[in-house]
Amino acid sequence: MTDATKVTRTCLIVDDEPRLRQVLRRLMESDGFDCAEAASGAEAVEMLMQRETMIVLTDLRMPGMDGIGLLQAVRRHSPDTAVVLITGVSDIDVALSCLAQGAMDYLTKPFTLEEVRARVRQSLEKRRLVIENREHQLRLEERVAEKARRLEQLFLGTLQSFSEALEVKDPYTRGHSVRVSQYSAAIARELKLDPAGVRDIEIGGNLHDIGKIGVREAVLNKPGPLTPEEYEHIMTHPMVGWRILSTMLGDVPTALNIVRSHHERVDGRGMPDGLLGTAIPLEARIAAVADSFDAMTSGRVYRRGGRMSMEATLAEFQRCSGTQFDPEIVAAFAAAVRKGAIALPQAAPGTSELMSVGTSPRNMPTPPHSAEIRQRAG
Ligand SMILES: [Fe+2]
Questions:
Q1: How close is the Cα of 151 to the center of ligand 1, in Å?
Q2: Residue 36: helix, strand or coil by DSSP?
Q3: Ligand 1 centre distance from Cα of residue 262 (Å)
Q4: Which domains does the chain have, with CATH numbers?
Q5: Exposure class string for 44-65: b at 16+ Cβ within 10 A, else e
């Protein structure tokens, strides 16, 4: 931005009478101004385009573009230039209306040189205050925007700290949460959700299992099948996570919904609320598909045949569409896969845990060699 308060003291005198221009020029130059002259409004506009000008002294009545036309052009093209109109006594009403249009002041003919000096001084002082005020406003807006950015960083950093706390306890979640976040975002984009909605879904995906902080490590990291008590304990994590984050994520209900409802099923047999169909928030239906996809395809999963292929995963989603998963979300997921927005993750070493989709979590536990893959609170 040009600092208009630091330009040379420049003045443009506009009058069709050369004699009057000369009088004003002498006066302004004696006060240290670098002066230019124009014999018409049109000529003045051209000159204003070529150099920054602090103040224009212009006659009101001129052939062609008059003082009002010039004033309007200055407001449009050089708003930091002060305009003082020179009028006859009979034009005072017009001059007053020009003040409303942005002129700084006016001089009535005949005028004394002291009057000119006083009007010019006042006009430049007003101009300085207007510019300073505007720059102050801009600085203020920049500071507010900066504070907002820092708050956002602090907010996201705090959420990241939560994720890291869980990673310490359950190293598997490190990649899992990030992948669920990415898959959820890809499905959300396929569903044409707006960028802010996608961003909130990413946050929710990253935090969806945060409630596992409250799950006993012996249960969380148990290699074999869970007892009913253990399963019930691990399945407290959506509500625990919701309670932990409900204050912090009060402004991001989308993320909070994912934390609470990512284990709901559209047939109403999910947890923790047993919500049915579209009573489950859209974002949670999205995260449920993303979560299960990662459960089926990540390194943590093993079945008798190893990690599931994309084809097998798609078939499994189709099989569970309308019971565990929302058919619309399954279709969006399949479309995202076709477009390459979702792909199989890299295989991770040391896989040792059974994750699955396909049956009600309420039926847990079942033997690990069950013909059906099933979900283990992922
Ligand atoms: Fe979960």
A1: 28
A2: strand
A3: 6
A4: 4-140 (3.40.50.2300), 170-363 (1.10.3210.10)
A5: bbebbeeeebbbbbbbbebeeb
Which whole-number Å values give the CA distances from 133 to 3, 104, 125, 129, in the listed order? 13, 16, 12, 6
Residue-wise pLDDT for 309-359, tens only, equals 899 999 999 999 999 999 999 999 999 999 999 998 876 544 433 333 333
Interatomic CA distance for residues 288 and 281, integer angstroms: 11
243 C-alpha vs ligand 1 centroid, how far in Å? 14
Span from the CA of 207 to the centroid of ligand 1 (angstroms):
9
CA of 182 to the centre of ligand 1 (A): 16
Q: Which residue has the tokens 């004003």?
A: 24
Token pair belonging to 71: 């004033």
Q: Ligand 1 center to residue 238 CA distance, Å? A: 6
**What is the arrangement of strands in the sheet containing 82-87, beginning at the earlier edge strand?**
34-38, 10-14, 55-59, 82-87, 105-108
pLDDT of residue 284: 98
